[in-house]
Amino acid sequence: MTIEKGSSDIWVDHCTFYKSYDGVIDVKTPVNDSNITISWCEFLPASEDNVFFDEMMNAMKANPDNYPYYKHLLEEGMTDQQIYNYAYGQKKTHLLGQSDDDSSAKNIKLTLANNYYKNSMDRMPRLRYGTAHVYNCIMDAQDLREMRLDIEKTNPELAKKIVSNGASSNCGAHMLLENCYMSGITNALISGNGSSPAGYINAFNTIYMMDGAKQELKVALNTDKEGEVALVQDKDEFKKDLPYTGYTLYAASELDTKVKPYTGAGKLTLTTLQWEKTSYNEAKQEHTEHVWNDGEVQKEATCTEEGSKLYTCIVCGDTKTEVIPAAGHNYSTEWTIDKEATTTEEGSKSHHCTVCGDKADITVIPKLENTQPGDNDNKQVITTNAGFR
What we know:
7-stranded parallel sheet, elongated
């Protein structure tokens, strides 16, 4: 996705993005102020459930002669699994500003809030000239790091193509990260990139992890342009120029539970009034009659206990709970033998509830009559000279 040619006041929210050929969301060639917010989105590798990605990789694996680059990687000593890992991650995520020569990028004003980046190699974001505020974001590339280290054992030069850059400020841009979590990224916080001159960048209350261990996060110069020095952004100076206040910050250590589960598509439910709005923060709209949805069972009713069902108004979001009456027993008309009678003990039978197994009409089954021969019937009389025995 590219936001360009003067587009402004753009909000991208609760979307899920998978691997793309180039940048996932880029901002280029602004005319006037390009105010962009990307929030509560997830940027994931490969494809949804890896279905398309696996199909693509399996096709190349089955017919490497039809795919010259795949065959080349095999000839370089990589295994099929290493090639799969090599192609797995997202190469580039956000490019803000088309080139070092296009100073119109100074009009870019971007907010990245509450986003989850999984196995992206670069540009979270890469900014030229403009301003970017990044907060409550997770940037986790530890899996990619482990894949790269594995490929290094086979071919160090190919492994270098799995780059590892985090946030990058260039051409005098201004970027501040707050309360973020960064993991497995070699160049996590960089001023300048390649031939691009340095920009101002800094991070506060941010956790930086590498191979499971916490590391010190520092701004690093990453440009080959001569005479450049790393430019460190002043937090207070940056924040006083923000066009908004009162945004919510979470502890970086809690982003895995406070942010990650709620990023991406399908995580947000809006009422009719909410998604039809064109302006926000006004007084709450009231309506006179609720429109209830079909309800969701909170507790199933049993034969003897009541249940409950929660209904939500699709207009305003209010809820109500209704009781689901106990169903009562449903006894079978057929007898069930609970205990067989014997010649020495009575048995029992009853009608069972077909739902819960409760018993009713418990009835005694009399002991069975003894129809076996008695002890005397088996005795033999033997006559001898001595008499009876």
